[in-house]
Design brief:
By secondary structure, the chain is α+β, with helices and mostly antiparallel strands. It contains 12 helices and 17 strands. The protein has 2 domains: 123 residues, Bacterial OB-fold (OB fold (Dihydrolipoamide Acetyltransferase, E2P)), CATH 2.40.50; 194 residues, no CATH class. The protein has a 5-stranded mixed beta barrel with strand order 1-3-4-6-5.
Length: 385
């Protein structure tokens, strides 16, 4: 079930107990679903076209272009894969056709990655017809067999093996709950420590003495931090007032949403929600603002969206802070932040970059010990919202 926009969820413990009780009362006995540890074979997937969610392991043998047609070269696009139990299979009746969602096309589409031919992959999705043929649709995880999933397609070696196993096969509120369990309990920083951390996570790769301001894109000396005009300070992309969390250790010091920004531009953004349009922002190329919203430059829109999605999943109200939620409006000072429809579009239009993955790894390895799931798996955004 897709997460409802702007609706409050009950505490996780209550939700889990309710779901478990309901399962005991009404669920018939059935075999356990396939997990990442025990994927289905292609033959099993062909025989189990019942709209269930499963992980299927098979060899990439081509790209389906019609019900009975699979091409093995000259791939027209990155939209589909054909999998089989043997890399030499040519009979389409022994193949399962896999839909490749947008988030995975850059790493698992055959036109872009023809070297995938003959490789064994694990794909998690819904067992449902595709091209009027036994298929696997709406994939949530693609990985080379044995890599346990990974960023933007399952091949980022920086992601610890098994880190996202608890999220496998889940969607909607269940996926959000699983991700919360994975990233909760991270190490926290003081607000003073954030100054030094941002000098590392947002360093200018072309000038080790500078940081890159998030909205403006300006390179500025690391030492020029403070509260005066012309300096940079600590921008809460999720405003403190949208949750009343202040700057004590927790959401107010979480590096996954904190960024360096020019003092004046930070003030212009204020606690506004995010949306398209408005008047141009001085000294912030391609930034726009109006009375209740702010639009950053195109090249960081996806980074911004994925940081806010992290916040909405990480802070669920169970650790003394507000339950932060994304919704589809402009809100003012509340635990809500919008607009989720715009953030989803920004995330899709601005894919995860190498710099974004590097920052995620730095936060995980050097500061907080937790990752942003929407950087590692950008497809989780559509699966939840």
């Amino acid at each position: 079930m897709t997460r409802m926009l702007g609706m409050r969820r009950p505490p996780l413990a209550v939700l889990a107990l309710t779901l478990f009780t309901s399962f005991l009362l009404v669920a018939p006995l059935r075999p356990a679903p396939a997990s990442a540890a025990t994927p289905l074979t292609v033959a099993q997937a062909i025989a189990t076209q019942d709209s269930s969610v499963a992980t299927v392991r098979g060899y990439v043998v081509g790209q389906p272009t019609a019900t009975s047609t699979v091409v093995t070269s000259g791939f027209p696009n990155d939209y589909a894969l054909a999998l089989a139990d043997s890399p030499g299979t040519t009979a389409t009746s022994q193949m399962v056709y896999v839909q490749v969602p947008t988030a995975f096309r850059s790493t698992f589409g055959l036109r872009t990655n023809p070297s995938l031919m003959g490789k064994q992959v694990d794909v998690t999705g819904t067992l449902s017809a595709y091209f009027s043929h036994p298929g696997l649709k709406d994939g949530t995880s693609f990985a080379l067999a044995g890599t346990s999933g990974g960023g933007g397609g399952g091949t980022d070696p920086s992601i610890p093996p098994g880190y996202y196993d608890a999220a496998t096969g889940r969607t909607g509120a269940a996926l959000a709950t699983a991700l919360h369990g994975i990233i909760d309990g991270n190490q926290t920083l003081s607000y003073t420590q954030v100054w030094e951390a941002l000098k590392v996570t947002d360093a200018d790769p072309a000038n080790a003495n500078n940081v890159i301001e998030f909205y403006s894109g300006r390179s500025i000396a690391k030492s020029s931090n403070g509260g005066s005009v012309g300096q940079w300070n600590r921008e809460h992309t999720w405003p403190q007032s949208h949750g009343d969390f202040g700057t004590t250790a927790g959401p107010g010091t979480d590096l996954h949403h904190l960024r360096p920004e020019d003092v004046t531009i930070n003030s212009t953004r204020g606690n506004k929600d995010f949306d398209n349009g408005g008047s141009a922002v001085t000294n912030c190329t391609d930034c726009f603002t109006d009375a209740d919203s702010f639009e950053p430059r195109d090249s960081v829109k996806g980074d911004l969206a994925r940081g806010l999605m992290y916040m909405a999943v990480r802070y669920e109200g169970g650790d003394g802070f507000a339950d932060l939620e994304l919704n589809n409006t402009t809100n003012g000072s509340t635990p809500y932040l919008g607009k989720i429809s715009v953030l989803l579009a920004w995330s899709a239009a601005d894919p995860v970059s190498t710099a974004e993955r590097t920052r995620n790894n730095l936060i995980y390895n050097s500061y907080q010990g937790n990752r942003n799931p929407f950087v590692d798996h950008p497809e989780y955004a559509e699966a939840i919202w």
